[in-house]
Amino acid sequence: MRPFLFGFVVAFLLLGLVAFGAVKTGSVMARQDVPPGKLETWLARTSLEATIDREKPMPPYPYGPPSETDFVAGANLYVQNCAVCHGTGHGTPSAIARGLEVKAPQFAKHGVDDDPEGVIYWKVEHGIRMTAMPAYDMTLDEKQIWQLTYFLKHLPDLPPQAKAIFDDPALGAPATPLPQMTIFPEPQARGTTT
Ligand code: HEC
Questions:
Q1: Which end of the chain is more exposed for a tag (fewer CB within 10 A), N or C?
Q2: Whether 162 contacts 75, CB under 8 Å
């Protein structure tokens, strides 16, 4: 029994050492322009699915059924916050979208209308770790996240006004402005005093 236990501990330590070495020598990929490997994908996907299973809201949902106003609000929120990565009706990925490996699905082509609303809501609320998908619970309220959820769920059969904004974001609200910058006073020329 003893040699077996000893072997087990040594193997465990060796494994830890190899993992530590891989991280310290930069063998664990840190670049965005290389697709994630099989192990990373498996770890990320499996834990994402398990977390969503545990935490997703279940019907009856606290907001809905959506009205036409909700779809238009969802379309505006979408072009402001999401289109930069997920694209608009014409489906051409932006420079930001093209620079991502884990790709952001371009919803004009690969929608999420087959996912339950609760799953879409969870992803928008909490974001997806190890990808570029941000969490919006810090910046949007619950009602806005439901409006986005219903907008995505009904992307193939949107009412005309919401569809028009998805196809041509210029019709909707302007993109999210950058945060206000503190305007620093002009640096004073050297040697001048007031
Ligand atoms: C900075 C880029 C970026 C922005 C901005 C962004 N996303 Fe994402 N999103 C991603 C990426 C990358 C993924 C893919 C994650 C993955 O494969 O697990 C993703 C995945 C998703 C998914 C899951 C797609 C699927 O096929 O299951 C949904 C839903 C989603 N995003 C909705 C939104 C909404 C709504 C917004 C705006 C409120 C938004 N995203 C903003 C990058 C972004």
A1: C
A2: yes
Domain 38-171, CATH homologous superfamily name and number: Cytochrome c-like domain (1.10.760.10)
For a mutational test of ligand 1's pocket, the pick from 79, 85, 101, 136, i.e. the residue with the most ligand atoms closer than 8 A to its C-beta, is 85
Q: What is the pLDDT of residues 36-66, one digit of tens each?
A: 999 999 999 999 999 999 999 999 999 999 9
Q: Which residue has the tokens 């302007």?
A: 174
Residue 105, ligand 1, Cβ within 6 A = yes
